[in-house]
Specification:
Blueprint (H helix, E strand, L loop, with lengths): L1 E2 L2 E2 L2 H8 L4 H21 L8 H12 L15 H10 L1 H15 L6 E6 L4 E6 L11 H4 L3 H8 L3 E3 L7 H4 L5 E7 L5 E8 L8 H26 L1 H6 L3 E6 L4 E4 L1 H6 L13 H4 E2 L2 H7 L5 E10 L4 E11 L3 E8 H12 L15 H13 L6 E4 L6 H10 L8 E5 L8 H6 E2 L12 E2 L1 H4 L4 E5 L6 H13 L1 E3 L6 E3 L3 E6 L3 H7 L4 H7 L2 E4 L10 H16 L5 E2 L1 H9 L5 H15 L4 E2 L6 H4 L7 H23 L3 H8 L3 H10 L9
Parallel strand pairs: 14-21, 14-22, 15-18, 18-21, 23-24
Antiparallel strand pairs: 1-2, 3-4, 3-7, 5-6, 6-7, 8-9, 8-13, 10-11, 11-12, 12-13, 16-17, 19-20
Length: 660
């Protein structure tokens, strides 16, 4: 039979087996008393005495220890004893709990804990060993604790084997086992002294060894956690170590932040249920001895707020488990960073000083000050996403994600999963663990739904619910998730016509059209073309690492007469094309693409001027409607001085009183 990988000597085993009943014990003790008498009289060894006990008696005699001394405990000086106890607080704290449990099976006995040097740190049960006593064999003679220190393994000493006569008279048998740290060094001894009338037998050894193992395991785990504490704290995720009863054994600062636990709160006496309202299903998963990776959980904290996270479970030795927790919002931010989900442009990025573009900018600035849904209208290539990014960067959400989705570019069958995500097993080919949708990734920030007019009608229903309820449901899931997302939609289509044709929901249109911005076509803001040319040529030359170029007055005049069906995007592309193919730093009409160079501008001059006039009148009237005829506010929105606005009202014969 072995205990803690250390063999019990043959003669120890033979003797302990003789103690199975009271008759055998009396016989054994009588033989040992005779052995003691023989030793005292002649110094010889009795055949009934274990060799190691005889050697210990002999050594004690040689050390000059008096076996008849009535003061049989030598106690360390008080100050020195206090320091040793203070230095061993963790050992005492862990061992005391296990010792109290062991005492319940030996209610009339005594248990003591000593250092590896034999200094008594803690006792429970009968108060027969003073705190601070020194129990080494060099000081006390043959005793169970001292023998364990020398043997460095599980031992037992019967009452009749003790060297001190006064202690022998107690008729109390002992067993002791070493407590080891993570490096297998002995750091303490636990000694069980049986009650006077309690039967000491073979199983008593197993009880002491089990207690020593339990203390060692707890000490080793603590040391491992202390050793790895810096590593755990360095991890950019929450770490909690629990046992099978969900009691918390360790928690890092990141986890404290996630669960909103202040630093002064001692978690050593808390369980998981004390820090959050976990479901029974979650608690079962944590401790069923299986390893889990990236479980998606929504945990209700004690203040009723929700923690959406990814949680992994790793079983470790000593029947404990490591929970690693990553906040879903943070994971999404990492994903967004990889995706480049940030808005790059602001209102300074929008080039132009025409009243048309300034009116749109001023409306957009108003939109940036709230969280309402915005609908941006305008032809393709006018810069609708530029406006969406500028609104986001001027809002309180500027440090949060900006996710752009081109609804018209997504395959019809993938729109739902792209926007709302899916759970594992939702369909054939679904990724393990599922995938978050664009709305989840945009949580806290802004989602830009470009080409909203091309969104399938069945998806429009789900989008309407997102706007109304501020929550999404992944494909294949029955659990909805609350989200906080600002929606900006854009289209170049006439949505009212789409409503009539049945391709767009009327109720969704009303939900989207809370605040609307019309981005003017380039042909309606031709005065901005020279400024746009300068901006594009400067940026493109720097990007291509080419020397600065200049566009001739004839080219600029032609550009201002051309209708630009592709709007600003077409203008930018044409400028880049000219710079690529130009052999000189001055770009003339000969460098212009044929479809623009051959454009006959003369018959269109009056048409262009008329279109500009119509657009300006339209903008002024829309502004007067919006401000209810307030000329100061109207001038501010149009980016005009009040005097300039008065002149235009007179020029176009517009009466502001008609709008008050």
């Amino acid at each position: 039979m072995t205990f803690d990988n250390e063999k019990i000597d043959g003669e120890d085993l033979i003797q302990i087996k003789l103690l199975g009943n009271e008759y055998d014990k009396k016989k054994t003790l009588k033989n040992l008393d005779d052995a003691w008498d023989l030793f005292q009289q002649t110094g010889e060894k009795s055949p009934h005495l274990r060799q190691k006990i005889y050697d210990s008696w002999l050594k004690s005699t040689q050390k000059g220890i008096n076996p008849f001394k009535e003061t049989y405990y030598q106690i360390m000086p008080l100050e020195q004893s206090k320091k040793i106890i203070n230095d061993n607080q963790r050992l005492i704290q862990i061992a005391s709990v296990i010792m109290q449990g062991l005492l319940s099976y030996n209610s009339h006995g005594h248990i003591n804990l000593t250092t590896s040097d034999g200094v008594v740190l803690y006792i429970c049960g009968l108060p027969i060993t003073p705190i601070g006593s020194i129990l080494t064999e060099d000081v006390q003679g043959t005793n169970c604790t001292g023998r364990c220190i020398n043997e460095k393994k599980l031992v037992y000493v019967l009452s009749a084997e003790i060297y001190n006569v006064e202690l022998r008279k107690r008729n109390m048998d002992c067993a002791a086992a070493p407590i080891k740290d993570v490096n297998n060094n002995i750091i303490g001894i636990i000694t069980l002294t049986m009650g006077e009338n309690e039967l000491f037998h073979y199983h008593s050894l197993g009880t002491v060894q089990a207690a020593a193992n339990a203390i060692s395991h707890q000490i080793q785990l603590y040391q491992l956690l202390e050793k790895e504490k810096m590593f755990i704290e360095a991890l950019n995720e929450g770490i909690i170590v629990i046992d099978h009863n969900h009691n918390i054994h360790a928690i890092n600062n990141y986890a404290r932040q996630l669960f909103q636990l202040e630093q002064h709160i001692d978690t050593s006496s808390l369980s998981l249920q004390d820090i959050a309202n976990f479901s029974k299903e979650d608690l079962l998963i944590f401790t069923n001895n299986n390893k889990y990776q990236d479980l998606e959980l929504t945990i209700t904290l004690k203040n009723r707020t929700l923690l959406q996270c990814m949680l992994s479970v790793t079983p470790i030795p000593f029947n404990q488990f490591i929970l690693s927790i990553r906040e879903k919002k943070r994971i999404h931010k990492i994903t967004q960073k990889i995706m480049g989900a940030q808005a790059r442009y602001n209102f300074n990025s929008i080039i132009g000083h025409s009243s048309a573009i300034q009116y749109a900018i001023n409306i957009a600035k108003l939109c940036s000050q709230n969280n309402s849904v915005v609908l941006i209208l305008g032809e393709s290539g006018t810069g609708k996403e530029l406006f969406a990014q500028a609104i986001h960067n001027a809002s309180k959400r500027k440090d949060e994600p900006f996710i752009a989705v081109n609804c018209g570019a997504l395959p019809r069958e993938l729109v739902q999963s792209e926007l709302f995500g899916y759970v594992e097993g939702a369909f054939t080919g679904a990724k393990r663990g599922g995938v978050p949708g664009k709305f989840e990734l945009a949580n806290g920030g802004t989602i830009f739904l470009d080409e909203i007019g091309d969104m399938p009608i069945e998806v429009q229903t789900n989008l309407l619910r997102v706007i109304q309820e501020n929550e999404i449901t992944r494909i294949g899931s029955e659990q909805s998730q609350k989200i906080d997302v600002r929606i900006i939609a854009a289209t170049n289509k006439n949505l009212q016509q789409s409503i009539i044709s049945g391709s767009f929901r009327q109720d969704l249109y009303y939900r989207l059209n809370v605040m609307s911005i019309y981005v003017p076509a380039l042909k309606d803001r031709i005065s901005d073309i020279p400024e746009l040319i300068h901006n594009f040529q400067t940026r493109i030359c720097a990007s291509l690492q080419k020397p600065p170029v200049k566009f001739s007055d004839e080219v600029i005049q032609l550009f201002m007469q051309y209708p630009w069906p592709g709007n600003v995007r077409e203008l930018e592309n044409i400028i880049e094309r000219c710079i690529h193919f130009s052999q000189t730093q001055l770009i003339n009409l000969s460098d212009i693409p044929a479809e623009i160079a051959l454009f006959n501008s003369k018959p269109r001059t009056s048409l262009t001027n008329n279109r500009l006039k119509q657009n300006e009148v339209k903008q002024i009237i829309e502004c007067l409607h919006e401000t209810q005829g307030n000329l100061r506010q109207c001038a501010l929105l149009l980016g005009l001085s009040r005097g300039t606005l008065y002149n235009k009202l007179n020029k176009y014969n517009i009466n502001p009183d008609d709008y008050r």
